[in-house]
Each structure stands twice: as C-alpha cells, then as structure tokens.
Amino acid sequence: MTEPVALLTMRGIVKTFPGVRALDGVDLDVAVGEVHCLLGQNGAGKSTLIKVLGGAHRPDAGSIVLDGAEVSFATPHAADGAGIATIHQELDLVPGLSVAENVVLGHEPARFGFTRPRDAEELARALLRRLGHPEIPPRRELGRLSAAGQQVVGMARALARDARLIVMDEPSAVLDPEEVRNLFRVIRELTAEGVSVVYISHRLEEIRAIGDRVTVLKDGRTVARNLPAATTPTADVIRLMTGRSIEYVFPSRAAPEDSGVVLEVEALSRTGEFADVSFTVRAGEVVGLAGLVGSGRSEILETVFGARRATAGTVRVRGTQLRRGSVPAAVRAGMGLCPEERKSQGLLMGEPVYRNVSLPVLSRFARGGFLRRDAELDAASAVTAQLDVRPADATRGTATLSGGNQQKVVLARWLLRGCDVLLLDEPTRGVDVGARSEIYALVRRLAGQGVAVVLVSSEVPEVLGLADRVLVVREGRVVHTSASDELDEGRVLDLVMEGEARV
Fold first, then answer.
1. The CATH number of 6-242 is which of 3.40.50.300, 1.50.10.20, 3.40.50.150, 3.40.50.10860?
2. Does domain 261-498 have CATH number 3.40.1190.20?
3. What pLDDT does 246 receive?
4. Is there a contact between 479 and 473 (Cβ–Cβ < 8 Å)?
5. CA nearest to 214, candidates 195, 245, 238
6. Any bridge partners for residue 331, and if so which?
7. What is the predicted pLDDT for the residue at 105?
8. Which of 53, 174, 201, 316 is the residue whose CA sits 20 to 30 A from 432?
C-alpha cells in the first residue's frame, strides 16, 4: 500500500494555560487530498490544537512541518498566508457587512490601492454557486441570513483564500440533511483537487461517511493516530474518546401519568416566521419539535419565551397568560430557555462561569444592596459539579471553556433557578458523546421531577429518543402531531420534506 504524501505533521505539541495543560504532546498527520477527522470529547484539546495550527496560539513545545518545512505561525494572518484556512464552529464573520464583504475580508480585490466591490461580489457569487447556494445574494447583509446561511458564507470565505488545508470545526452543526450532503459533495471536490481537510464533528456517523483517517484526542493527548475511518468500529472510537463504553441508548421513559397541563400555546403566530401554532405540555412530559433548519422551530421557542414578540396567539403557564414579548414575565412564571446560539444568545462570554449560572437568581445572593459573592460562587459550583463542567472551577472565564462545557453552563443556570417549563433548542449541538448521554439523562431526570420540557433538535433520532410526543414543523406550521413511538426517522423526514399536512 502506498504511503500517503504528508502535507502537515504536528509533533509533541504542548500548550499550557494558567491552571490547565490543554495540550500535552499532541501528534497529528494530514496527507495531501485527504479528509482527516479529529475526534475527542469537549475539553480534549481539539479547539486548542486548531488554534495552534491557525496561529491564534503559540505552542510551548513541539513542531509543525508543512510541505516538508518546519513553520511557526505568530498570527492567524501568517497561517492564512501559508494556505491554512479555519472555519470555526463559532463563525468569525461580521454581521454588519455584506456577504461579499465577509467572503473577501482581509483579502479585498484592489487595483491601484482602491478596492473593487464588483469583483468581490462576482467572486462571492461564483463561490456560493460552487457551494450549491446561488440563492444567497452577495450584497445581502450577513446578519439577515440564517445560521445555516452564515455557515455557507464561512465556507465560501475559506475557499476564497485558495487554501491547501481547510479546518472545519463542526461544519454540519446547523445544516439540515440535504445541506450536509451538499457539504460532503464540496469536500470531495476539494480533496480531488488536492486540498486537505481536517474535519471535526461529534456526529460519528459523518466520520464514516466522509473521513479517510481518524486521530483521537483525550485529556490533551493523542490516544490514537491515523485510524481508518471506514472500518474502525464506532464502539472502539467511543472507548478511545471516553475511556469507557457508551451505548447509544436513550434513558428509559416512565409510564405517562395523567398530570396537569403546565404550558399552553394557542394559535401562536409571528408574521413571516410561523403561524397558528398550538400545543400543550404536561408536567413531566417532553415534547419535541422536528423539522428542517429554517422551518420555524427556533423562532417558535423564542416567541414562547418572549424573546420575540408574537403577532397573534397566547402563551399560558399553569393557566396564567404571559405578556407578549416579555422575557422577564416568562422567567417569573418559571420558564427557562437554552437557546440555539449559546455564545451570542445564552452567555456573557466576558463573565466567569459562576456569574453566568447565577444570573437569573442574583437577588438570592443580595443583602443590604450588596452581592454575597461567596454564596453565589458556592451555589454555582455545586450545580456545575452536578453537570461535570470542566475544568471544575466556577471562577474561570466562560470564554475559555470548550463549546460543550459552555452548553452545560447554560443548563446549570436553569438547574439553579428551578423551572416549571424548560425550552431546549439544540441542547447537544457541538457536544461529545459522553456529555451528550449526560444531557439525555438530565432531560429525563427533570421530566421525572415534573418539569415540562420542549425540545428542538436537528437530529431526528434525538427527538424521537427523548420526546414523549412530537410536533413536525414545516414552513412555519405544525403539519403532524403524534406520540414519538408512532413515528420513525423515515416518516419524520417524509413529512418535513414533502410538506403535506397529514395527521
């Protein structure tokens, strides 16, 4: 068998931050024209490693060899100039600029010192067409696009750099199944042209579909290198990532009780987003919303919570009607929301973990107009310990945590607050298999304690596995409602793709 031609070799990479050794001698090999999958639990060191590769962090030790020559990148611009492009999970795009301006940002086409906006628009248009999204206008402001649309722009920006190595961090997290297939088509075209891709995903089924080789990190160390993606058993990969076996089973459901209705949503509408949505949730029940990205699922949850103002309809918690567009009213009524975009919608990234957790209940820790920081810290530390937030230090800056641990911080907030109704929008996005099973168990435990849960997820098996009842949403309308055990994944996809209301 011919040995693959190496493009990138990283050896013995070490990176230490105050109080934590994030990378402890990591090795990574990427061949020319391959898709190399980088796996590991949240906090395993994946993000730190790609930041070292991308010039955002300087390693404390180790070497990086690119095309046979040792390199050192002092800045992201230097890595970019060497042909390394990174599409981060949390996109580094500028909402106030147009699509075209984001695509060429930092590499604007110019002549005689003057930028050429028309050339930028033509380049963006060609790249969007290549990505299978010619419908995205290059002149549209980026902030007006959906999360999936912004992800596409992020990929176009990487392609505009004429990169030799593209790092994709959870690129499919906000994409529907058809968009994932299109993403894989683009990746295969890139690798056929000799471009290498480092692909990071917690969706292990994607690794087998698109990957060539796999490297696994655990606790800042490389525990497996260059495994064949197509033939390595999933159970082996999970064992390497977690140090234990994790079965892909959902927690058992208790027999449904004839409990009272906690949440009532009646004829809820928001012009241009969704219309005439009605459902109820009983104490201890998990209701799932299934549908494609852009179908209105997230908008429904945010409107129920008051983050968006409804144009019609009512929301009641235990019989009390909530004021439209009022988050404080929803929180006072005992409602909590874990939003889809945790960094921009759910967390104060500049604050420590304990402050993010205590935010809805700060009054508990106030005395004489002053906050009792010790009591606040103790309460937050106790609840983050329940969720195994890593590192186990509630004074640590929230921005320093991995994506999955940031998600746990959002969940910890509502555990401390205590909720009658918990709205979960993509609760396991970017979360590793170990933490995912913990979140599944938490959802069922909360339901067992009588919390009414509404769950949105792009992963149909997750909705079917966790929910007692499922609402299928298409183009802003509920087209089907039934018990989860009356549906399977094929039936749900059939309903959301065809769009015919069948009950």
1. 3.40.50.300
2. no
3. 56
4. yes
5. 238
6. none
7. 86
8. 53
Burial-class residue 297 by CB neighbours within 10 Å (0-12, 13-18, 19+). Answer: buried
Identify the H or E element spanning 473.
Answer: strand 469-474
- DSSP annotation of 343: I
pLDDT in tens, 197-242: 999 987 788 898 999 999 999 889 999 999 999 999 888 887 888 7
CA 401 distance to own-chain centroid:
14
Beta strands in 271-404 (DSSP E): 274-282, 286-290, 312-317, 320-321, 335-338, 366-367, 370-371
Question: Do 197 and 116 contact (CB within 8 A), yes or no?
Answer: no
For 106, other C-beta atoms within 10 Å of its C-beta total 10
Residue ranges covered by each domain of the chain: 6-242, 261-498
Q: 47 — phi, psi (to 5°)? A: -65, -40
> In which region does residue 388 sit, left (phi positive, over 0), alpha (psi from -120 to 50) or beta (all else)?
left
Residues 375, 47: Cα–Cα separation, whole Å = 33
Angle between helices 147-160 and 117-130 (to 10 degrees): 110
* Domains 6-242 and 261-498 belong to one CATH topology: yes
Cα–Cα distances (Å) from 297 to 149, 279, 287, 404, 427, in that order, read 16, 13, 12, 22, 13
Distance CA 132, CA 200 (A): 22
What is the C-alpha separation between 450 and 453, in angstroms, rounded? 9
Do residues 220 and 59 lie in contact, with contact meaning Cβ atoms separated by under 8 Å? no
State the DSSP H helix or E strand holding residue 264, giving kind and residue range, or none if neither. strand 261-270
Written as one letter, the residue type at 100 is: A
